Amino acid sequence: MLYREALNKAMDEMMEKDPSVVILGEDVGFYGGNYKVTEGLYAKYGRKRVIDTPIAENSIVGTAIGMAIGGLRPIAEIMTVNFSLLAMDQIVNQLAKIRYMSGGKIVLPVVIRMPQGVAKQLAAQHSQSLERFFASVPGLRVFVASDATTAYYGLKYAITTDDPVIFLEHTLLYPEKMEIEEEKNFSPYRARIKKEGEGITIVSYLKMLHDTLKVVPIIEKELNTTCEVIDLCSINPLDISTIANSVKKTKRLVVITEEPKTGSYANEIINKVLEEVFYELDAPPLKIGSEDVPTPYNRTLELASIPTPEKIASLIIKWGRKHGI
Amino acid sequence: MEYKITMPQLTDTMETGKIVRWLKKEGDYVQENEPVVEVETDKAVMEVPSFRSGILKKIFVEEGEEVPVGTQIAVIETDVEKGKEKSSHKEEISKDIKEKHKESKEELEKKVLEQIKQEEEKIELPESSASPSAKKLAKELGIDIKKYQEQGLLPVPAHEKDIKELFYKNFFTKEALEILQKYNLSLEEVVKQIKKEKISKKDILKFIQNNNIPQIVPISDVQKRVIENLQRSISIPVFHIYEEIKTGNIPDIEGITLTVWLIKILGDTMQNHYRTRAKLEGDIYKVYPNSNICVAIAVEEELFVPVIKNVNLKSLKEIADDLNKLKEKAKQRKLTLEDLTGSTFSLSNLGMFNILSFDAIIPPERVGIVAIGTEIRGKTKITFSFDHRIINGREAAIFVDEFKNRFLDKDYLNKLKKEVV
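^ Those are the sequences you sent over. The predicted structure of the assembly is below.
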């Protein structure tokens, strides 16, 4: 199964179960989605439930909000996170606030799905990671789907919940082959320990998680220690207790995100860990992220600006040696 | 001029593309912008045009094959006259392409190792600098970090590990510490378990024996390769044939060991059975004309399997010389890739160790292996193992029978002897 097929399966199952679930977005219907995520759903559920919209992101989110007020459970697809900037007014001022400002009378079971991240040479305007923006808006839940399991269960949960959910995917994960692992009591609010270890806690999500797992054996061999790798399913709210408990054990923290380092969501994670377990730390936390530049188009420069598996490994190994591993 | 067609990046997520169909054959004329091939990406099937007109000289990637973006898939000769000549290095290039395809783990590890070589600058920190957890532990154990750092007994900054080491080292004698290192034991764990003011070498050895603690022995690179190959061998469907050969008939010639005789006779027998000279590659067999046999050689604890080439064309003397050269090279760890590849059959002789018989594991990409036991009253037990994908029971039985009968054929044995003497 492909990552994008796990997302499709989640939506398909929810649409079959609940007639109020609808999909809207650019090219989600007849064309099957720009990244083929909604492929086949138009044929199965028809144009009334899989709705092709004009290229107008603010209106897509606005329409979804209206649908939700009217009793539907809309899933809005924004083609990439870069275009969500045009919809920020509806997302921040309406979607995040209406439930609060109506005293809880109006619930908005809206999911906004969008991929983010550096793909390959799409240049600065189409290569962004923007979780920092969404995670910092009270009233929104922000999920990240790192693999087929979190994509499938996470998206189903997002559709079921009455809160508005920003659901972030990664462009490069769509064609990746992976399987859905069966989970009985899935909760997106519980971080997942992908690999247990004793020496370093590594927190990551989306594509960076996969790049990290690729080099964990090299890191462990070079530093003669073991890594505990934690995948986040929800970044707001954040499951700080799983991370803090792990750091209590390992006494070392590394956070890897694809966002540019300044102001990145990694800062939030590190800050919360420092508040919880500062006196347990044996080394300053390490943050790995993109350089503070608009993503270059040139492939060599592009790769130089983002974390790659070998960069992740060498940064952690150097940091470990410097700080007493 | 040659113009290369490469696998284009057709979508932003595309990393590899699969050739669905070539719309042109080799030798066809292609117009500029005319589609030449259909490519399946992660999203859809698309036609790829040529950006030059000319003759499609060579196709490197067949239909159904998948290659990474940027890989050369064909070449167009823009000079039409030249395009009619055939290019001959198709195989080389497509092999090249396939090797590039694998970005191996070792490569990634190599890149990382290069990057971490650069030295970090050292930051000058004031004494008594230590991590929060190191400070906490030092306080619990009553260690004055500043004092020890001034004496150079603790690094700056100090980490938890350093404090623990400093504290627990005092419990051990120097010899005891050396042993601990060999067994990769943590000082803290041992102190907690032995509970003595001063722990000696004797205490440690007793502790190791009582708790049955393993010593850490690194695996040599040679053995790592052996393990890797054996794991690949597991996937071979094997059957065995057990026989006894009459080695008593073999004439005595100085410098020619039984192994040499066995190699020669095996090589000659292989000539009459093409499947023993074959390699399985995808959906074809590659049958080689010569009998190339690899021989298991033990050097101390390491196992090497170098190849004796063209056994069918060589005399016993030449084979003996080859074998000695390869043994010498193995001892000096100087075997090259050339020495280790190209055989289709294997031979392993453990006869000198006084065992009756055994069976051996087929090294990957070989048709089979023969395992030789000890000669007892002129007779030797042998066990053949065959890869059933390449040779069936009937053919294998006929092959083994011929091998066996050659030991009874005195004319043949004398002929071999004459070539030497």
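Chain A touches chain B at residues 35-36, 119-122, 126, 171-172, 174-175, 214-215, 218, 222, 251, 278-283, 309-311, 313-314, 317-318, 321-325 (CB under 8 Å). DSSP finds twelve helices and twelve strands in chain A.

Shout if you want it in another format.
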